[in-house]
Amino acid sequence: MVIANSGVEINVICSHNYVPSNKTPILFLHGFTGKAEDWNFITNQLNDKYFPIAIDLPGHGETKTTINLNFYSTDSYVQIVNSVYSYFNITQAIIVGYSMGGRTALSFASENSNKIIALILESSTAGIENEVERISRIKTDSEIADKIVSDGIDAFVEYWLGLPFFKSLKSLDKREYSKIIEQKKRNSTEGLANSLKEFSTGKMPSLWNKLDTFFFPTLLIAGSLDRKYVRINKQMNQAIKNSELKIITNCGHNTHLENPKEFIILVNDFLNNLD
Fold this sequence. Notes:
Elements: E1 2-5, E2 8-13, E3 24-29, H1 40-43, E4 50-55, H2 74-87, E5 93-98, H3 100-111, E6 116-122, H4 131-151, H5 153-161, H6 174-185, H7 189-198, E7 218-223, H8 227-239, E8 243-248, H9 255-258, H10 260-274
Parallel strand pairs: 3-4, 3-5, 5-6, 6-7, 7-8
Antiparallel strand pairs: 1-2, 2-4
Helix pairs in contact: 2-3, 4-5, 4-7
């Protein structure tokens, strides 16, 4: 289904255009080069008390691409989540976010903590504190965005999945890995480039100084082979008072693709403990 947000159509996947009164909404936010349907593997594995809603974030999936760069900013990502809340008349929800989706969830929560029941963050970060590192990251992401446009989507996806923290994905079944590649290639070249430029980890405001104000339950998930994000999530675990960190062994950055069974178990255990 489609939700209008400031004149742009946002694609969401859910079973109804309303949240049944006896169900708790749980929003799923994908990572960079992903899409809402990436979460299909888990939505039917949740307790029936939950109402899953998966969102195609700006520049991804079936959400309409626009040349207006403001649409890809941190504020816009937060506004899009707010528009989903408004459309479904949601007061509070659980949000699950992977990587870029986790940064979206954190950005939203930092401004709307009263709308959060709990967060589940996979391979995510609260941003970059060091100004020199921020500037360097913005420059790097801008160069990669230009590469997407100049080289085309096919070449970029091959480059992106060739990065070290996705190396362990290649241990998947060849047919499954090929399917992942083809799904990512269906994204918009312009959409991905604009998303990377405007919602770069460098451009996202650092939220490290706000983490100690989060009191809702938070589950942090990282893959043992992704050492950078294990380190980041250990720091986040220390900063967020009501949080727990789970490391999935023999996995890289995308744990839910490499070990979906373990990911589902961790999410359901966490949700069960909320009760």
